[in-house]
Write a structure and sequence with these properties.
eight-stranded mixed beta sheet, 15 helices, 16 strands, about 20% strand, globular
Chain lengths: ~450, ~450
């Protein structure tokens, strides 16, 4: 049995929804469908979720919100009319929004989660009703009914492990099931949303819960590119990639598939395929536990992300001092900073983190390190981009490092940092922010076309 | 004013001692001389210090030690006779050894330190007496008289910061001063030795204390080689090297100059020169705070050491968990293990340490990590050698990494680990133990002769 998730652009209007249902209905294995809120219909359109956020802001600030509410209802009305459906559902939408606003006005963060969950929820109800009316037995299932029980902190839902037993029972239904993505219900009976982009997470949770044979993630691209298409013109699409590779690439800027959504799938080794709603015949990209390596697919992808900061610490005879590093990390823990890399020399240590982790508290953190750790030198560098070259098996091929560093040297890119080894499937390079695009271009051309870009 | 230290082979017999005193006496700036115990006179000879250790073992086990004691006295007798000196000093030697054995028999670790300190101490007394008899005002100064006050833990002496004030007063003497290396005196009035090879440490402490203009470290080679002469035939000698470079090279196997001896010098930027007692006209290797970089001396040296172990930890979403790394390091701290490197990926961390740090406690450490840190995968690899390429300014030269990895790839060496960046002056490569010599040869040929060794 397959679980299929459709992103916002796949369910933005009647035409798209018909495409989705054609895909769903032509394969009896596609039993459970997760839908997003209606996304943009054109480049200048506004996503339904963003309209809902504005509705929330008006309601919470006691500004007249009727016009905004009508705008939202109109999004669904357009779909209802084009699908030639009964308009009753629009009343339900209206009543539900008013109900939340009046019930939760004194609990702003609860109201926020309830309101923004409506984008997915209304869409799921609408699509289920329509498909059923077309003669295909279809049923809307709310997250609560499905058993998506989550932690209680607003906007930060995490699935409770105990949920999976109830979710497994979805296997008992004979109909096709349509479930809204993006949120669950807490034990205190509040709607709590997943971090944004969280419909991927709902799909992954359901796929794991029902032990799906495949989790199909439909979006508006035919798979995952080997490098950022804003930097590389028409990059190739990855055929197969492992969970681990996907995560390393997501980390440094790949955003096709939501990072945390891999976690539930990883555990039960449920394969994922990223497919294109508009070109369902395209093979897409499979995300798997293992993949076969051949000479052409050693390197899966190349990504680069810019917003990193590095703190450099020098301390003479550092490696002799048991506990020194732990003292330094204690300061980071005090400020709740999670760091990403920690290359170290004999007398030096560098701590690499996302710049947002240390924004605004930088001077306090540096002061505390200075005060508690008795360091010899302390410096901070904000001009750091991280280039990740990711590929299963690259650690087994002699000369990989040589080839990649060669390509970067030919493009005159200085390497502030190289980190290879802890992860067997990636090499990390710290480079100047201004070199980021050039680095992606030069390594892409070299890894996939064997061409050096000389500067 | 210069402080000169002479190693064991430089003071092993009368001929060598005459060479040393010629060097000392021809430069009025050479005021303070630190001497080692008599070293080997030929390849199969035994160092005096090793004879003293055997004397200690016999005495502590109530085995008749008279023969061993006579063997030691004979070492000095040979020197005394060849120098045509009065034999009185041999009685002093005999009495001192008997005195220590009887006074300290119930304090084995104190006895050990006292006995082994005799090698240097007797030699200093002998050399001072002889030089004085040659008409050059010379005085033996004991470490206590010099003010070398140290911590009280046997075999692990560390200088007390308060000592330097007293040491500075050595400037007041008009004579040449001969001080034994290798030990100091604790506030409880016990002799405590520095870690072995510790005459270098005494020299460094005195050089710092008297604010020497230069610390001359005389040994039996004409400086520091750019790579291990057991691997590279007749390697070039380094002309100038910085403290930092020296330390990174010492770390991975260079043993010419004792690692910890750099610490006191580093602080006051006192330059060191490594010279050859047998070829004092050779320029030697200068160890300095800064050096000028040109195209030929970017890379100072190449070293490789074999006895490393790495523990690899995988944990999904590791980088999101504030405090995870600190928890892991807590286990290492519990077992008092100091580690050397810690390359990390997004979901992985590797902890590299000297194998002796984890010997015998390996399974307990792994168990504790498993128990306290909830890791996904845990493995250990004993087959790790560390290759260090060290050079000030290499981080400023684009393509250094490319060239070195190229040389290694041409020799078919797989890189388990690359760590560059935390230290600006070195690149570290983790390789298989069996590749260690090949790696040194291939990078040496490439860095200094531009030649690739193809396998």
């Amino acid at each position: 049995m397959k679980v299929a998730k459709f992103g916002g652009s796949s369910v933005s209007n009647a035409k798209q929804i018909k495409k989705v249902l054609k895909i769903v209905n032509e394969d009896p294995e596609r039993k459970i469908i997760i839908v997003s809120a209606p996304g943009k219909r054109s480049k200048d359109d506004i996503k339904t979720t963003d309209l809902l956020i504005r509705l929330y802001e008006k309601a919470i600030n006691n500004i007249d919100y009727q016009h905004k509410k009508q705008e939202i209802i109109q999004r669904y009305a357009d779909i209802v009319d084009e699908l030639d459906m009964d308009r009753d559902i629009l009343d339900t939408i209206d009543h539900t929004l008013e109900h939340y606003i009046h019930e939760l006005k004194d609990k702003p963060s609860r109201l926020y989660d309830a309101i923004v969950s409506c984008g997915e929820d209304f869409n799921a109800q609408l699509i289920a009703t329509y498909n059923n009316s077309q003669g295909i037995p279809t049923r809307y299932i709310s997250p609560k009914e499905a058993g998506i029980w989550v932690t209680d902190l607003p906007k930060q839902a995490q699935i409770l492990d105990s949920s999976y037993e109830q979710i497994y029972k979805l296997n008992d239904y004979k109909e096709k099931l349509i479930i809204p993505g993006f949120f669950g219900v807490s034990k205190h009976n509040f709607i709590v949303t997943f971090p944004r982009g969280g419909s991927d997470i709902t799909g992954a949770i359901i796929a794991r819960g029902v032990r799906a044979s495949l989790y199909e993630n439909f979006t508006d691209v035919s798979g995952i590119y080997k490098a950022n298409p804003n930097i590389i013109k028409d990059p190739e699409i990855i055929e197969e990639i492992t969970y681990r590779e996907m995560r390393e690439l997501s980390y440094a800027g790949f955003s096709v598939f939501h990072d945390e959504a891999l976690q539930p799938l990883h555990k039960d080794r449920i394969p994922v395929v990223i497919k294109n709603t508009n070109r369902p015949e395209d093979k897409g990209t499979y995300i798997l536990h293992d993949r076969e390596i051949n000479s052409k697919n050693v390197i899966s992808g190349i990504s680069c992300d810019k917003d990193f900061t590095v703190i450099n610490i020098k301390k003479y005879l550092m490696n002799r001092q048991v506990g020194f590093t732990r003292k330094v990390l204690g300061v980071f823990e005090d400020y709740n900073i999670s760091f990403d890399h920690m290359p170290s020399g004999i007398d030096n240590i560098s701590i690499v983190m996302r710049s947002n982790q240390i924004k605004n508290i930088e001077s306090r953190v540096l002061n505390d390190i200075q005060k508690h750790c008795d360091v010899d030198e302390l410096s901070i560098d904000h001009d750091l981009a991280i280039l990740m070259i990711v590929g299963e098996g690259m650690n087994r091929v002699v000369g990989t490092a040589s080839k990649i560093t060669h390509a970067l040297a030919e493009s005159n890119i200085n390497l502030k940092m190289i980190n290879q080894g802890a992860s067997e499937i990636s090499m990390m390079f710290g480079i100047k922010v201004e070199d980021a695009e050039k680095a992606v271009r030069s390594t892409y051309e070299f890894c996939y076309h064997g061409v050096c870009i000389k500067e």
